[in-house]
Specification:
Number of helices: 14
Number of strands: 6
Largest sheet: 3 strands, antiparallel
Strand content: 5-15%
Distance between the termini: 157 Å
CATH topology of the largest domain: hpI Integrase, Chain A
CATH superfamily of the largest domain: Intergrase catalytic core
Order of helices and strands: EEEHHHHHHHHHEEEHHHHH
Radius of gyration: 46 Å
Shape: elongated
CATH class of the largest domain: Mainly Alpha
Length: 478
C-alpha cells in the first residue's frame, strides 16, 4: 500500500531511520545524509590504508633484495680474500622470487660502518659527555657564585689575606705583565680572569720576560709565583700546580739562571761602608733633620737585619707602618725594642720584637735613635701613632725616597750605586756578622731566617745578642 504510514525505530544513538515501501511492497531503510557520508569516508580510509600497506610492502621487498645483493657481493669478496677476517660467517645465498618476503631474523648482519669510524663516533660521544659534564660543573659553580655572592667575595678576600701587602703588590704587577703577554699572543684574559693555559704558554712567557723585558731570574720566578697564586685563587687548574712536573719549564729556568749567573749581584753595605755613610751624613748633606733621620734609619736597618719594606712604606695606608709607639726604650737608655707588625717570616701577623743594644762603637743604633727621637719632638708635635721615620713635612719615609738618598751618598763615596739597594743593609749585616766570627745559629736568629728549623729551639738571651752585635763592629777593614 502506497498510503501506509512511515514507521520509526529507535537506535541507541538516538538517531531515527526512515522506513518506507518501494513499489514492490518491500521495506526500504533510508539513512540520513550524514550517515551516508560517514560510510563513504570510512571506505576511503580503508582504501588509503591498503595503498600505504602495499607501498610499505614494496619498500620492504626492495630493501630485502638490496641486502641479499649486498650479501652476495660480500661473499664474493671473501672468496677472493680468504685471509681477511669478517665479523660474521658467510651467509647462505638465497634467490627469492619477486614479491616474496624474508623474516627479519633470517637477514644476515652486514657491517656497513668501518671500525675506525665507529671508534671515532664512540670517542666523540665520550668527549661530548665529558665536556657536558665540565659545562655542568662550571654552570654549577656559576650558580653557586650567584646564590652566595657574599661568601664568594669573602672567600676571595681570605685568599688575599694569605699573603702580605708587599707580596700582593708584587703579585699584582707580575700578573698584569702576564695578562699583557697573553693578549700579545692572542689569548684573551677578560677582566684579568686567568684563562686555561699549557706548559708551553708558560715557557713562552718566561722567554719573553728574559729576552724582551730583560728581567732577572729571581723576578721571573716571582712572576710565576704570582701566576700560580691567581690561578689557585680563581680555582682553575694550571701547569704550576703541585701535581705537575713542568720539566721543560724548569729546564728553561735553569738556563736563564745559568746565563745570568755571571752578572754582578747586589753588593752588601757592611759595617765599614756604614761608617762612611754615617760620616757623610754627620758632615751634612740633605739638611740637619734628614741627615739625623737617615743616620737612625741606616743604623736600625743594619743592626736589626731589616728588609727595606719593614721600615719604609710604599703606601701611606699600610697597616704595617712602623710607628713611634713601636719603639720602646729601656730605663737606662742603653737598649730599645722595636715591634714589627708584619714580616715575611711572620705569616700569621702576630708581631715580631727585635732588641737592639748599645754597640760602644763608632756607629751605635741606640745613640742614633735617641738623637733622632729628641730632634723629632722638637721639630714638630710628635704623635705616637704617626710614622717613625718621616721627612721635614711629616710624610712617612717611602722606599723610593730612602733608596734615592742612599744612592746619592754611595755615589759621593765613589761606589757603584747601581749594585746597591734597600736590601743591601740586610746582606751587609749577615756578611759583617760572619766576618766577626758570629756563630751560624746566632746569625739566623738575628736575621730571623726560617731555614734550618733547629735555630727555633736555641734560646739566646739578651747578653748573647748584645755580644753578637758588638762583634759585628769588630770586623777588620780590608
Amino acid at each position: 500500500m502506497t498510503g501506509r504510514k512511515r514507521k520509526t525505530s529507535e537506535i541507541p544513538d538516538e538517531r531515527t531511520i526512515d522506513i518506507s515501501e518501494n513499489q514492490n511492497g518491500d521495506e526500504v531503510h533510508e539513512l540520513p545524509a550524514s550517515s551516508e557520508r560517514a560510510i563513504h569516508n570510512e571506505a576511503g580510509r580503508k582504501s588509503t590504508n591498503e595503498t600505504k600497506i602495499d607501498s610499505l610492502s614494496q619498500a620492504i621487498d626492495t630493501i630485502q633484495q638490496s641486502l641479499l645483493s649486498l650479501t652476495n657481493v660480500v661473499s664474493k669478496l671473501q672468496q677472493q680474500n680468504p685471509n681477511q677476517s669478517t665479523p660474521t660467517s658467510e651467509p647462505d645465498r638465497v634467490n627469492l622470487p619477486s614479491g616474496s618476503r624474508v623474516p627479519s631474523d633470517s637477514v644476515p648482519y652486514v657491517e656497513t660502518v668501518s671500525t675506525n669510524l665507529r671508534n671515532n663516533i664512540i670517542q666523540d660521544d665520550k668527549i661530548q659527555r665529558s665536556s657536558s659534564s665540565s659545562s655542568s660543573n662550571a654552570s654549577t659553580s656559576t650558580i653557586l657564585e650567584r646564590i652566595n655572592p657574599v661568601l664568594e667575595k669573602e672567600s676571595r678576600d681570605l685568599c688575599e689575606s694569605s699573603i702580605s701587602d708587599n707580596t700582593r703588590r708584587a703579585y699584582r704587577t707580575g700578573f698584569t705583565v702576564y695578562c699583557q703577554f697573553l693578549s700579545s699572543i692572542g689569548i684573551e684574559a677578560p677582566n684579568y680572569n686567568p684563562p686555561k693555559i699549557s706548559e708551553q704558554t708558560l715557557i713562552y712567557f718566561v722567554t719573553h720576560c728574559c729576552n724582551s723585558l730583560k728581567l732577572t731570574y729571581n723576578t721571573i720566578k716571582l712572576y710565576l709565583a704570582a701566576v700560580r697564586f691567581h690561578y689557585v685563587k680563581a680555582g682553575i687548574s694550571n701547569p704550576l700546580s703541585s701535581d705537575e712536573s713542568c720539566a721543560r719549564l724548569q729546564t728553561v729556568l735553569r738556563g736563564i739562571q745559568k746565563q745570568q749567573s755571571s752578572k754582578q749581584k747586589r753588593r752588601p753595605i757592611t759595617y765599614s761602608v756604614l761608617i762612611q755613610i754615617q760620616n757623610v751624613l754627620q758632615r751634612g748633606m740633605f739638611g740637619y733633620f734628614l741627615d739625623t733621620m737617615l743616620q737612625a734609619a741606616c743604623s736600625l736597618a743594619f743592626f736589626a737585619f731589616l728588609r727595606c719594606g719593614e721600615f719604609t712604606v710604599n703606601d701611606i695606608n699600610q697597616d704595617n707602618l712602623l710607628c713611634v709607639e713601636d719603639v720602646v726604650m729601656d730605663r737606662n737608655y742603653k737598649a730599645y725594642t722595636i715591634t714589627l707588625k708584619r714580616s715575611k717570616t711572620d705569616p700569621f701577623r702576630t708581631g715580631i720584637q727585635i732588641h737592639l743594644f748599645q754597640s760602644d762603637q763608632t756607629v751605635c743604633p741606640v745613640k742614633s735613635m735617641l738623637k733622632y727621637l729628641n730632634l723629632r719632638r722638637k721639630w714638630y708635635n710628635c704623635v705616637m701613632s704617626s710614622a717613625l721615620f718621616t721627612d721635614e713635612s711629616g710624610n712617612p719615609l717611602s722606599s723610593h725616597f730612602f733608596i734615592t738618598k742612599l744612592k746619592q751618598i754611595l755615589k759621593l763615596l765613589g761606589l757603584d750605586d747601581e749594585n746597591f739597594n734597600g736590601h743591601s743593609f740586610r746582606i751587609g749585616a749577615a756578611t759583617s756578622a760572619a766576618g766577626g766570627q758570629v756563630e751560624d745559629h746566632l746569625i739566623k736568629t738575628l736575621g730571623r731566617w726560617s731555614s734550618d728549623c733547629y735555630t727555633r729551639y736555641i734560646r739566646s738571651d739578651d747578653q748573647t745578642l748584645s755580644r753578637a752585635q758588638k762583634a759585628m763592629c769588630c770586623q777588620k777593614t780590608v
